[in-house]
Specification:
about 375 residues, mainly alpha, globular, 17 helices
Length: about 375
């Protein structure tokens, strides 16, 4: 398989992941409460699929970063992707905190309430992916120094965050650490995506990313998508098994076995989706430019759509005025409009980039 084919597979995943995130946030922030019932086929279906949006987004981030990291075969400290990864870590972390900055006065925090501080320090997707990338770099360094395989080191790292999750989530971390640190360990401070178990998805993506980088011909074969499908089914079956076993044993009363079940179930569904994308990639010679552009601008799309929906310290968002108060039809219309708006933004940004490159090339010549 050519490098071009592999990029088709990864771009498909990135574009799908970010568009799922956009529609999920839009519907969740605007749809009125009376429509949020599991008796509704639409809502129950949407709610189920939305539960997979964050794992897909994080897993894909891990795949793409590790793929780029391991495609370069230079030693760790000579690999330019290491420096880029560290820069990415600080960029994502900075944007994550900036989106939740508590005051428009910048350096005057006298009017900031306790609730605003909680919101500011809560860990969201960008914070989590930032640390996920950092962990991938650390694990890649360990793998290189110990001469152990990536899959072994990354699997150990991913399982660390998954298996400790039921224990970690019940500890009062805010009584042990200051709020900014405690927020990374559990949801009680308002964090949406604490490190346990969510970092496991990013690191899990690193396993697939490393495999793709070292097996350049694999994606051209249908066997690859079949293997991913089988792996996904195994994870789903395993999640169901441990959940049932937990109900039949006394362990269930002391350890939240269902926490393991949910994580492994989501990993399974993510692998199934990857198998579908891999199969599609074998049938495509090249992707439309628009899909590639969306895949390359996931961070921009993510940041802008959050500001539009939830606002920031300087700009009010739609959520402030229409928080879960809009009917189904209008919510769907806004969701589609949001996707179209993000797509149009990406097209304009890409045109500006191309125009600047052409100007630089003209000046250089």
């Amino acid at each position: 398989m050519s490098t071009k084919k592999r990029i088709i597979f990864l771009d498909l995943m990135r574009a799908f992941a970010v568009l799922m995130m956009v529609q999920g946030h839009t519907v969740d922030s605007l749809l009125a409460e009376e429509y949020r019932t599991m008796d509704s086929l639409f809502y129950s279906t949407w709610h189920t699929f939305r539960g997979f949006t964050a794992p897909i987004f994080m897993f894909t981030s891990g795949v793409v970063f590790t793929y780029l990291l391991r495609t370069n075969t230079e030693p760790f400290f000579k690999n330019p992707r290491v420096i880029k990864g560290i820069k990415r870590f600080f960029l994502l972390l900075g944007i994550g905190y900036l989106l939740r900055y508590p005051t428009y006065k910048i350096f005057d925090f006298s009017d900031v309430t306790e609730k605003q501080w909680l919101i500011f320090f809560s860990v969201d997707a960008l914070h989590l992916i930032a640390f996920g990338i950092l962990f991938v770099l650390i694990l890649a360094f360990i793998a290189e120094k110990t001469k152990l395989k990536d899959w072994f080191i990354f699997s150990a790292g991913g399982l660390f965050f998954i298996l400790l999750y039921p224990l970690v989530k019940n500890i009062g971390w805010s009584e042990i650490f200051p709020l900014p640190i405690a927020a990374y360990f559990y949801r009680d401070t308002g964090s949406l995506f604490p490190l346990f178990p969510w970092a496991g998805y990013v690191i899990g993506g690193g396993i697939l990313g490393s495999y793709l980088a070292k097996n350049s011909a694999v994606c051209s074969s249908k066997n690859f998508s079949v293997k991913l499908l089988i792996g996904g089914v195994v994870f789903v079956a395993f999640s169901i098994l441990i959940n049932q076993l937990g109900k039949l044993t006394s362990i269930y009363s002391s350890i939240d076995v269902n926490s393991f079940s949910i994580v492994f179930y989501r990993v399974g569904i993510v692998l199934v989706l990857n198998s579908i994308m891999a199969m599609i990639a074998t049938r495509i010679v090249d992707l439309p430019k628009l899909v590639k552009m969306i895949g390359r601008n996931t961070l921009l799309i993510y940041g802008v759509h959050l500001v539009i929906l939830y606002g920031c310290a300087w700009i009010p968002g739609l959520y402030m005025f229409y928080s879960r108060s809009i009917g189904l039809e209008l919510t769907l219309t806004v969701a589609v409009s949001m996707i179209l708006l993000m797509t149009g933004m990406v097209i304009i940004v890409e045109k500006i980039r191309i125009s600047r490159k052409n100007k630089i090339s003209t000046v250089t010549v």
